[in-house]
Amino acid sequence: MKEAIMIYLLIGTYSPEDKPGIFVYDLDPETGKTEYVSGISGLANPSYLSVSENETFVYAVSENGEIGSVAAAFSFDPGKGELTSINRQPTEGAGPCYILTDTEDKFTLTANYRGGNISVFPLSPDGSLKPVSQVFNYGPESHLHMATRSLDKHFIFATDLGRDKIYKFIINKNPGTEGKFLIPGEPESFSLPEGAGPRHLVFHPNGKYLYCINELEGTISCFHYQNGNLDPFQQIASDTVEHEGKKGSADIHITPDGKFLYSSNRLKNDGIAIFRINEDNGELSTVGYQKTGIHPRSFIITPNGKFLLVANQHSNRIQTFRIHQETGLLTDTKQDITTIEKPVCLKFIFKRK
After folding, report:
1. Which residue, 175, 215, 223, is CA-closest to 197?
2. CA quadruple 200, 204, 210, 212: dihedral positive or negative?
């Protein structure tokens, strides 16, 4: 963990362009206490954020329909905790709901839910986004939801909720002037059970296991990972309560020590499912369930593993839970942020000593 006294908490929301949509708070990682720092307007529906490795730039999607979907770049002032707009580029795909930034390899990509595609943007040294250099289209039945980089930094994996697939890309270390940063892998995809609806992915800190939260089926699919290949070994329930025949799992994260995995569930059974991870084989066992506010779309775990923060989209409430270090169970600290409408994404930036 980097040395830090405090952490900046960045919050993405669904909001109109003329109102602040990205917020910055101070977060004390020892107490869980938060305090407002700043907010920035000018971008409609900045529903997902990503932070550059050096933490000087922040990137956001503007999740809109067929017209107006863009990715946006911001510079971040670590002294003031303020964002300044740099530029934006069209995504060439509607409804971008996720953005991944790889400043080591100098590109950003968006997963475009309504467009059924992935867009790749080269990055300039000043942090600005260049126009899209690659678009991977998968058809009208596809709903791309997120992408993550393998811990060995060789591959990108992206979920397609509509076609029940996880796509694999090789990161091209020599993209050339055409900006071909991604090359479809072999195989190009891995299939999940029909109707699963893969949404978000997370790698175990040891890099050996990959976990996928399936929104529609309310399950977690577990894979062994090695050299770009995924080998399924377990599927376990996350959301066990249906609402009008549907389930609504959303986000998934693992504690920094690799002991516990958490997944959020929406619709009827708003809350966080808690699992213990067997580090010998990666298998999950159910520990408990923590009720939350309404529609917990996104959550995040502090780098010291002490707190889990949940963004409850429909109750306009960000909750802070203390993580029990031995059991993984959660305790509400009653230190809610209740002044932000429709919070849907949480990210951290460190404040160094």
Report:
1. 215
2. negative
Kindly give, in sequence order, each residue whose CB lies less than 8 Å from that of residue 245, ignoring residues fewer than 6 positions away: none
Question: Helix H segments across 165-276?
Answer: none
Q: By the 8 A CB rule, do 218 and 248 touch?
A: yes
Q: At 272, is the secondary structure helix, strand, or coil?
A: strand
The model carries a pTM of: 0.96
For 12, what's the count of Cα atoms within 13 Å in the CB-facing half-sphere? 28
Q: For 122, phi and psi rounded to 5 degrees?
A: -65, 150
Q: In 3D, which of 258, 352, 250 has the Cα closest to residue 310? A: 250
For the chain, the first-to-last Cα distance in angstroms comes to 13
For 122-178, write each residue's pLDDT tens digit: 999 999 999 999 999 999 999 999 999 999 999 999 999 999 999 999 999 999 999
SS3 call for 264: strand
What is d(CA 87, CA 109) in angstroms, rounded to the nearest whole number?
A: 15
Task: Name every residue whose Cβ is closer than 8 Å to that of residue 21 and which is 6 or more positions away in sequence.
Answer: 12, 13, 14, 15, 39, 40, 41, 42, 43, 44, 45, 46
What three-state secondary structure class fits 76? Answer: strand
CA distance 61 to 270: 25
What is the DSSP pairing of strand 271-277 with strand 296-301?
unpaired
